[in-house]
Design a protein that fits this description.
heterodimer; A: Ubiquitin-like (UB roll); Fumarate Reductase Iron-sulfur Protein, Chain B, domain 2; 2 domains; 5-stranded mixed beta sheet; 7 strands; B: mainly alpha; 3 helical TM bundles of succinate and fumarate reductases; 8 helices; 74% helix; globular; binds protoporphyrin IX containing FE; binds iron/sulfur cluster; binds FE2/S2 (inorganic) cluster
Chain lengths: 254, 223
């Protein structure tokens, strides 16, 4: 692909802290290489801001290679930007044209309050995991990984669900601000494996209860989450979660 | 799990919507089939016989109570869900996600449902209420419902409202039919393909048949 440079207008959400009202501010960046990543482009802008004595823009990132789930920008109306199955850190500037205006917003959900600028508090996801996203194991030597036979299709489906990096894009995209795609991935990946069996029923009950407590909305199967998910988690997991919940209500002893 | 947990968590509320939604779909099958008798072209003979069976018989009349209960639960729960879900965003986006990944009608179930509700109020006051009050709300004598249809559907604005109601129902079902089965846990590819085809076909056929009823009377397509 041909390399080119571009000038862009960036409309970015600025907010000093949780209690600040916040608002959009426009910035210009010049001579941005089409081979930069989106976050590198923001690094360039931040250097400009620091040199001119202004507060740099706060945004989340860690691995910058699409595996940690920290980056979280709502770019031109889509979480993680236009590209399908892609994280913000793996979005590259060749996705943009010279002279374009790019609007960058934080994830919007009451359950994810803005901490500063583009950074939101995603600790509700940690608490949902703590409520049931684990398995019990005996201490001592690790058992041989292949000693438990597992159906290949189930193992594949479980691995696909385990791809979720907990970025929260599904919440950001959903009109109901629902965390169901995330939750369903976490529930499905353990429910499909024998190791997940001991806590199978309590897991789904407790994780759903925690999700509701955190103030996310209820799923209405619109499909916006699946379309935006950087790990292409299938919405079929949500139906699987519903079945897990219904089954738990019928067969769980308590 | 307590019953309260089963039905009042976010997933539980969905189960309520799914169960009542499927129940209402079953009702629609009965309703549209019976009403199709108007096309027998026999001056409403067959249709009135069917309507009489439904109106003058304890079994359907008791089922009718269940129908209203299901409908009312569906409406209250649906509107409550819509309002609660809308309150979860806080500050909205400057640029909207729009149609990227979801259909407009999937995002408008509350709006479509409200249009159906307004239509239902008109519809019940056109037929159900006059007929049942004539019956003294028991098994008394009914009015001639075929004649009543001719009367009601001679007015253009009524026909327009009915057609709009049917279009809303069609879109509500285009999302709702499939969604209900997913809510109840259907999740493999084979079944998804089936409910998707059956869902779209059902939505189009039912909405079209209902819409053709007022149109048939208004344009005199039946004798
Ligand atoms: C005969 C009429 C109706 C039928 C057959 C019907 C059917 C359905 C079905 C099958 C669903 C999907 C449930 C699910 O996703 O699990 C649904 C959802 C919904 N309905 Fe209805 N419905 C009817 C009338 C209404 C009315 C009158 C209202 C409101 C005033 C309404 C409001 C809603 C809402 C808001 C949803 C979305 C909830 C969700 O997806 O979780 N519906 N309906
Ligand atoms: S399901 Fe996808 S969008 Fe949601 S948190 Fe996991 S990786 Fe992110
Ligand atoms: S920074 Fe780790 S996934 Fe983007």
């Amino acid at each position: 692909m041909e390399h080119y440079n571009m000038n862009l207008t960036l409309k970015i959400w600025r907010q000093k802290n949780k209690d600040d009202k916040g608002g959009f501010q426009s910035y210009q960046v010049k001579d941005i290489s089409s081979e930069m990543s989106f976050l590198e482009m923001l690094d360039v802008l931040n250097e400009q801001l620091i040199h001119s004595g202004q507060d740099p823009i706060a945004f989340d990132h860690d691995c910058r290679e699409g595996i940690c789930g920290m980056c979280s920008l709502y770019i031109n109306g889509k979480p993680h930007g236009e590209w399908k199955g892609n994280t913000t850190c793996q979005l590259h500037m060749r996705a943009f044209k010279d002279g374009e205006t790019v609007t960058i917003e934080p994830w919007r959900a009451k359950a994810f309050p803005v901490i500063k600028d583009l950074i939101v508090d995603r600790s509700p996801f940690d608490r949902i995991i703590q409520a049931g996203g684990y398995i019990s194991v005996n201490t001592g030597n690790a058992v041989d990984g292949n000693s438990l036979p597992i159906n290949k299709d189930k193992a594949d489906a479980s691995f696909a669900a385990a791809m979720c990096i907990g970025c929260g894009a599904c919440v950001a995209a959903c009109k109901n601000s629902s965390a169901m795609l995330f939750l369903s991935a976490k529930v499905a990946h353990l429910a499909l494996l024998p190791q997940g069996e001991p806590e199978r029923h309590s897991r789904v009950m407790n994780m759903v209860a925690q999700m509701d407590k955190e103030g996310f909305g209820a799923c209405t199967n619109t499909g916006a989450c699946e379309a935006t998910c950087p790990k292409e988690i299938s919405i079929a997991n949500i139906a699987r979660l519903n079945l897990e919940y219904l089954t738990a209500s019928i067969v769980a002893e308590k | 799990m307590t019953w309260k947990q089963v039905f009042t968590s976010s997933v539980g509320k969905k189960l309520v919507m799914g169960f009542t939604g499927i129940f209402l779909i079953l009702f629609l099958i009965v309703h549209v089939s019976l009403n199709a008798c108007i096309w027998a072209n026999d001056g409403g003979d067959m249709f009135n016989k069917g309507a009489h069976f439904m109106g003058a018989n304890w079994v359907p009349r008791i089922l009718e109570i269940g129908l209203f209960a299901g409908l009312i639960i569906h409406i209250i729960q649906g509107l409550a869900l819509e309002l609660s879900n809308r309150s979860k965003r806080g500050i909205g986006y400057a640029v909207n996600y729009g149609n990227k990944g979801s259909k407009w009608y999937s995002r408008s179930m509350g709006l479509l449902g409200t249009i159906i509700l307004l239509f239902l109020i008109l519809h019940l006051s056109n037929f159900w209420f006059p007929n049942r009050s004539h019956q003294g709300f028991l098994l008394g004598e009914e009015i001639n419902l075929y004649q009543k249809m001719q009367e009601v559907f001679s007015e253009l604005w009524v026909v327009i409202v009915y057609v709009l109601g049917c279009i809303s129902l069609g879109y509500h079902l285009a999302h709702g039919f499939q969604s209900a089965f997913k809510t109840l846990g259907v999740h493999n590819k084979r079944w998804h393909a089936l409910i998707s085809i059956v869902g779209y076909s059902f939505s189009i056929i039912v909405a079209l048949m209902f819409a053709l009823m007022p149109l048939s009377f208004y344009f005199g397509w039946i004798s």
